[in-house]
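dumping this here before i forget
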Amino acid sequence: MTEELLSLPVPSVPAGESGVAWLRSQVVRFSDGPEHTRRRALTTALLEGVDATTLDELADRVLPGAPADVAEIAPSYQPHEPITAQADAAVERLVARHGRTETTAARIGLLVQAWAATRAFADRLTTGDRTPPVPLTRRQSAQGVVEVDLTAHPFGHGAHACPGRELATKIAKNMAFKALHHRAEPLLLPNAWDHATAVALQEAGYPAVGTTSFGVSAAHGVPDASGLAKEHTRALARLIGTLPCPVTADVEHGFSEDPDEVAEYVASLGISGINLEDGRGDHLADPADQAELVAAVKRRTPGVFVNARVDTHWLGIDATTTEVLRRAEHYLAAGADGIFVPRLPLPGIATFTATFDTPLNVLAGEPVHRLADLGVRRISTGSLLFRAARAATVETANALLSPGTRSGAA
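structure:
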């Protein structure tokens, strides 16, 4: 029945000469027939080659200077919503800058829909709600306007499917991942080392999945933190980045000391976050140099959550709270979204959270409630799951050699 209703035309909108009424009458969303075909092709063309990690970034690429005006227009965009004077004025400001053309309308419409649907999608990802960001649509039937329930259909379903679905999904995941660090309870982040484990963790209900550099390196027969897992890390990130949840990757120190190279590498992953460590095997990077890597990544991919890892305690080099705070200041000033300090003792955790509002990430070990009480916002499993899986594999294999053991299913 839903398919039949979706084949019906969208309700017509009255022609308008200015403001939101003009915008509605010009966009693909409220068009049918040849107009819909032409305007959809125009909107699709506008998205070709456009990459963005935030809504503001998308707006700057599609219609420079638009974010504030788009936010004014969005609440009045749908035909069933009342048009405010502020929304009309926002449309006219954009028209004055870019011209009263169908192309301008397409650009505004694209951004307005992204503003509303992508934010709704991000909210659902944060709460674990798997319903589509646009739960219903309206169609014109012989009996009048009918509402069509889309909750059983994937995002972007039907003839009026969003042409920017893939881009909107990426931005929504980025927004959701950042929001997961600001909930009442810490984000428990499990770390996978291949596609199968990532899928299993996502299906188990974890709202986000990370990778473990140790597990990825070991699974491919190369030493951890050697810089040899660059392509393995990229391949895994791209593979599990298609999961219906945010994904973050441990990228060691970015596999380069060149800020631009690190930034391009992170952009090539297409995921929501990274861990970027300042450890360099047997020594620590200069914090000013490491901050340049952080800043380059944030310039290139502002929506990617950069978790700047401080390896003082991990490597046992200058392992003092004072040094942790000093390095954190550098990385936060460069734009880091979070700080990760493996093996930071409880007193150091308390000092850090009393000093900075930024999310602190630590390794699992202490009870979750205790870490939460200290202000920890993210708890990672690191290589723990990989080591446990490896031990369980050997244990299971050994058990098969015990007398009376029956072989299991292949």
